[in-house]
Amino acid sequence: MSVAVAAGRQAWRQLARNTGTSAAIRRTIFSLPKSQHSPFRPAFNTTSKALPRFSQPQYRSYSSGGSSGGGTQVKFWPFVMVLAAGSAGWVLLINRQKTMPPNPQATTTITKPTPAFSPAHVTVLFVLGGPGAGKGTQCANLVSDFKFHHLSAGDLLRAEQERPGSQYGQLIKDCIKDGAIVPMEVTVALLENAMADAIARSGSRKARFLIDGFPRKMDQAFEFEKVVCPAKLVLFFDCPEEVMEGRLLERGKTSGRADDNAESIRKRFRTFIETSMPVVEYYDKEGKVVKVDATPKPTEVYEDVKRKLLEKLGENF
Ligand SMILES: Nc1ncnc2c1ncn2[C@@H]1O[C@H](COP(=O)(O)OP(=O)(O)O)[C@@H](O)[C@H]1O
Ligand SMILES: O=c1ccn([C@@H]2O[C@H](COP(=O)(O)OP(=O)(O)O)[C@@H](O)[C@H]2O)c(=O)[nH]1
């Protein structure tokens, strides 16, 4: 290898003397930017996003016959030496890389999308429970005691619905009125953006989030954990329908919400039982649910929430 490299170097100098600087030669021989000459590129070219392979047709073709025609002083044996030395080095490098472990970043992108936030820095708690169970009320308490960022999926959707020019405004409006679930792409994107904003504003990459009223459907749960952040646990507020109905009708007197009326409430209850309870059951099987009785008065519910969360997560979660 060293003999070949030395011969190549010698040939390179000879060529430079004959036709100008080595940089000029490089530009003449390879009409490619320098970065595309990396011998490592083919080994890492495993994803569809990778740059195109360094391919032979991009070389100009040279042959020893060229020296006889133009009356030039350039000798062509140095080219042969350079190519021979380069090819030998190339083969050695390729063989060495076959024995190297794969680049984990290069392979991760094709097999599984990386979540935007790492659970090592970001703690996510999903907060679930039927409509009117008291999720928002208890989240407010947790925010003041544990410095959580509180993100209500319903609030984010309502804000998007009101945003001038939103292409999802009408869709969100119709879903909310009918107690149906907005397509997950919209909600997951709103949550991810809101998390990124909160983290940027806090100036620290460590953060705790209460994701309130989400995920309400299995596809949302899978998508969020895959592309945004795996969740640590689910805080589930258990409340009978008749209690929730009374609270919602009372809230409807002042909330101004289009869905706090008897007809929408009925539809929301049905969606909750059919679509959202399976999410709670799924996480329960994973041992990730902290269940709290939501029927006592708010202060008592909160005492229970605090005690059970600390029991599950420890003081320094
Ligand atoms: N434990 C409770 N007892 C009585 N009323 C409650 C309790 N928790 C919440 N509320 C009231 O019930 C309504 C629904 O609570 P909210 O926190 O908005 O529920 P959710 O976010 O689950 O829809 C609100 O008007 C709230 O003040
Ligand atoms: O992930 C979500 C969360 C909420 N919603 C919609 O927003 C409504 C209100 O949800 P919110 O959590 O604000 O209120 P809740 O029903 O819990 O009182 C729901 O009925 C759904 O129509 C949704 O589509 N996807």
**Terminus-to-terminus distance:** 56 Å
Q: What is the total domain count?
A: 2
Helix content: 55-70%
Number of helices: 14
Shape by Cα distribution: elongated
DSSP strand count: 5
Q: Which structural category fits the helices and strands?
A: alpha/beta
Q: Can you give the mean pLDDT? A: 79
Computed over alpha carbons, the radius of gyration is 32 Å
Structure description:
A ribonucleoside 5'-phosphate binds at residues 158, 180-182, 213-216, 220, 257, 268. It is found in: Cytoplasm; Nucleus. Monomer. With 317 residues, this protein is α/β, with parallel strands linked by helices. It has helices at 2-19, 22-29, 41-44, 66-69, 77-98, 104-111, 135-146, 153-162, 169-178, 184-202, 218-227, 241-255, 262-285, 298-313; strands spanning 122-129, 149-152, 207-212, 233-238, 289-293. It has 2 domains: 2-111, no CATH class; 122-313, Rossmann fold (3-Layer(aba) Sandwich). Mean pLDDT is 79; it is low at 1-72. Residues 129, 131-137, 247, 250-251, 297-298, 301 line the site of adenosine-5'-diphosphate.
